[in-house]
Specification:
mainly beta; Neuraminidase
């Protein structure tokens, strides 16, 4: 009975999305993983090839005539970089990168963070230590309001091919653990996004987006969202509005435009308005 009700809730929370992105954010490339800097109003996002490779983090600023032409983010390094996320206070930026570390070119994606100074400038990015980063790949670092940093990884010791893990700083170091069987299966799970109020999580599996509710005992078994969201298996890179009632994600819309950002449950004031072009229903 409870699982049936959760299924209905998941379906109800997934209203038909509309295409939100427009030029110059939208191009023939794949645009995804939006993140709004609440201190400046800038839009950070990932631009990659139509085949979703060669990731780079871009930044666009809101001008009188709309979003500016995107440029490399100020924290850009070498290698591929993706998955930007701002802490709610705007002081810390989390992302993933294969940038050169200690003079060694990296092949695996690691979690990095940069802190913003009082002058508004970003300091030198730092790679998180083990056991947060591993010899495998890490993706999509996102903080929950309870202090845990959730992320995806293909490291050994998981329940499936890739899993959701979580880490927190304790006693001057980091504690890392698997997020458990309510979120993970024998297949792929890789992008965990806790809601701003901490009551539920949106997560990506190998076959689409799922929703999990939080209880006093932990996460409930995940429930798959409906076809309004999971249209063709290319959905990725979700981001919540500060109130958690609206969210963006990206999808290859299969009409020659490659990856586009789509808006779910759009509300006045979010995403920040900086385009004269109306959203297009898809």
């Amino acid at each position: 009975m409870i699982d049936a009700l959760l299924g209905l809730l998941a379906a109800a929370s997934a209203a038909e999305p509309v295409v939100w992105s427009a030029p110059p954010i939208s191009t023939g490339q794949f645009e995804s993983h939006p993140a709004f800097d609440l201190r400046t109003g800038d839009l950070w996002f990932v631009r990659s090839s139509p085949q979703f490779s060669g990731w780079r983090i871009k930044r666009s600023r809101c001008a009188q005539d709309g979003w500016s032409k995107p440029v490399d983010a100020p924290i850009a390094g070498d290698g591929v970089e993706a998955d930007p996320w701002f802490s709610p206070d705007g002081r810390t930026l989390w992302f993933i990168s294969t940038r050169t570390t200690d003079g060694v070119a990296k092949k695996d994606l690691d979690i990095w963070r940069a802190r913003r100074g009082r002058d508004g400038k970003w300091g030198t990015a730092e790679r998180l230590p083990a056991p947060v980063n591993s010899t495998g790949q890490e993706w999509f670092p996102r903080h929950d309001r309870d202090g845990w940093l959730y992320f995806g990884s293909d490291r050994p010791g998981g329940l499936g091919k890739t899993d959701i893990w979580r880490a927190r700083e304790e006693g001057g170091g980091w504690v890392v653990e698997n997020a458990g069987p309510a979120l993970n299966t024998a297949e792929h799970e890789y992008e965990p996004l806790p809601s701003p109020d901490g009551r539920w999580m949106l997560l990506s599996g190998g076959d689409g987006y799922y929703r999990s509710e939080r209880t006093a005992k932990g996460w409930r078994p995940r429930v798959k969202l409906g076809l309004e969201i999971n249209r063709n298996g290319s959905e990725i890179g979700a981001a919540f509005a500060p109130d958690g009632k609206s969210w963006l994600f990206s999808r290859d819309v299969k009409d020659g435009r490659s990856g586009e950002m789509l808006l779910v449950n759009g509300r006045k004031g979010w995403p920040p308005s900086c385009s004269r072009q109306p959203a297009r229903r898809r």
